[in-house]
Amino acid sequence: MKLNVNSIDRFTKELPADKVLDNSRRQVEGACFSYVNPKLPKNPSLLHVSTAMLRNLGLKEEDGQRTEFLYVVSGKVVLPNTKPYAMCYGGHQFGNWAGQLGDGRAINLTEIAHNNKIWALQLKGAGETPYSRTADGLAVLRSSIREYLCSEAMYYLGVPTTRALSIALSGSKVLRDVMYNGNSAYEKGAIVSRVAPSFLRFGNYEIFASRGDNATLKTLVDYTINNHFSYLGTPSKAVYLDFLREVAKKSMEMVIHWQRVGFVHGVMNTDNMSILGLTIDYGPYGWLEGYDHNWTPNTTDSSHKRYRYGTQPQIVLWNLLQLARALYGLIEEAASLEEILEEYRINVKVAHLEMMRNKLGLNTKIDNDEKLVEDLEKVLQLTETDMTIFFRNLADLKKEQFHDWFNIVEDAFYNHKEVSGTIKENWIKWFNDYGKRLSMEVWTDKERKITMNTVNPKYVLRNYMAQLAINAADDGDYTVLDELFELLKKPYDEQPNALKWFAKRPEWARHKVGCSMLSCSS
Ligand code: AMP
Ligand code: MG
After folding, report:
1. Could you read off the pLDDT of 222-280 as tens digits, one per residue?
2. What was the pLDDT predicted at 260?
3. Terminal alpha carbon distance of the chain
4. Atom of ligand 1 nearest to the CA of 283
5. In a shared domain, residues 491 and 430
6. pLDDT, tens digit, for every residue of 190-207?
7. Quick one: pLDDT at residue 231?
8. How close is the Cα of 495 to the center of ligand 2, in Å?
9. Which of 13, 56, 314, 431 is most exposed, with minimal Cβ within 10 Å?
């Protein structure tokens, strides 16, 4: 029996295809995609399936166990009446225009319609495409587990994201130099099938603007509006502006969620910015353990730290500027585009403050809140303080007993001894201010705690947790992968049986590759 999905292909039917059909690396012009088949996997095996995602696609849990399913999500067979393709895009990488990039190792299988939703289904690591440039089109188990676990974890945290459907081994080995230091080794090859309403990126628009190809740019922008922003109305110059405004709004919401949960993307190049404001391309991302605005897990970015936690909202603005430049060709009026970017600049500050108010359990607004938040951000960085534990435990503070603060948040401090002298005085001052501020609120302690616990997760995919799942999986043991997958479905629940994951990063993980240091190697 065949897999019963309702395939429709809007992208390939409505947009221009690359006329060249051979799978050779080259510049592809005047086309949004190239037809290409996945590489045949040697000996595929399924490691994990997201049941929730199966259901979204109209499949049953049992379908996920069928050989036919494994064959589709590993690239061994192509779904009937579908033609897989790789998308053409460019991008600004680390602040510089990088020219054509494209799906170098992602292959879109089809789009699937179910329950009034349409999902694009894509394989990552399924072989080379015309966009593979100098690389092999493959992915290793390590990076695939990181993408698989984190994208589903983000979804359950309430962060806009692409989703993951499955992870499979290809049965072949892939050569990688993890830290780019001349120590190449073979790793297990893997394929993640991932799902989103669309995988379009800022770079998909930039590539046509960079080539002065306004005709294809217009076709793609109109397509995007008609299929993903149809509520904006029929495409016109005014609607193009509304489109940019919507992308700015969605991207802002996404990055504010990142700041809320302590997620650092690591490679916010414009080719990794979804036009739908979804977190996309899980590479050398990481989670703040010690709260630190300067932290980035990406060793490739260690000297400039362009994509560090504290600058993520500004980088979104920079990326929006590149998108605005690309759209200029269709709008030809800079003032309105600049206005939208200016709106973002103002709105993101407001949204950040609102998000921090929520994290602090403040229901009302007063002018001084901005100062309270800034002071907290400073004092949190005086000594290594675990972000997740700090905010989660903060909800236990009693309005009348705020002097008791140390006992409440002490588990968040990596080194208690450092919380002394002026650092301790700073904390005392901050908790005094916070205590006073809480006394202006009508919420009871219980009400505040309940609300705070809906925005301050108890469990996130700490960097070392993913690494533990990887180490075990490398040895053929998938129990940690499964355990974390289940744990992270309920990140705001207490889950008393899982308290070992509500703990500071263990010391062994502090400087370990994969835990605190990640390269783009994947
Ligand atoms: P990233 O920084 O991972 O988003 O990737 C940047 C560009 O490199 C994209 O065009 C990717 O498709 C491409 N790329 C990354 N890894 C590979 C690989 N192993 N093979 C082919 N292309 C790749
Ligand atoms: Mg990418």
Report:
1. 999 999 999 999 999 999 999 999 999 999 999 999 999 999 999 999 999 999 999 99
2. 98
3. 35
4. 3
5. no
6. 999 999 999 999 999 999
7. 98
8. 34
9. 13
Ligand 2 midpoint to CA 377 (Å):
31
Q: Is the dihedral of CA 299, 302, 306, 312 positive or negative?
A: positive
Q: How confident is the model at residue 520 (pLDDT cuts 50, 70, 90)?
A: confident
Query: In terms of residue numbers, what domain contains 297?
Result: 203-358
Q: What is the DSSP code string of 444-510?
A: -HHHHHHHHTTTS-S----HHHHHHHHHHHHTT--HHHHHHHHHTTSTTS--GGGGGGSSPPPGGGT
Ligand showing the shortest atom-to-Cα distance for residue 132: 1
Q: Among 200, 217, 247, identify where a domain stops.
A: 200
Token pair recorded at residue 437: 């501020």
Catalytic entry in 271, 281, 301, 386: 271
Tell me, yes or no, whether 171 and 27 share the same domain.
yes
Task: Single out the residue of 466, 400, 436 nearest to residue 153, CA to CA.
Answer: 466
Do 404 and 298 share a structural domain?
A: no
Q: Do 307 and 425 share a domain, yes or no?
A: no
Q: List the beta strands (DSSP E) in 36-184.
A: 45-49, 85-87, 90-93, 96-100, 106-114, 117-124, 139-140, 163-176
Q: What is the pLDDT of residue 179?
A: 83
Report the pocket of ligand 1 as residue ranges, CB < 6 Å: 101-105, 131-132, 135-138, 267, 271-272, 281, 283, 520
- The tokens 């005392």 sit on which residue? 428
Mean pLDDT of 94-107: 98
Tokens standing for residue 291: 């709260």
User: Could you confirm whether 242 is annotated as catalytic?
Assistant: no
Q: Is residue 455 part of a domain?
A: no
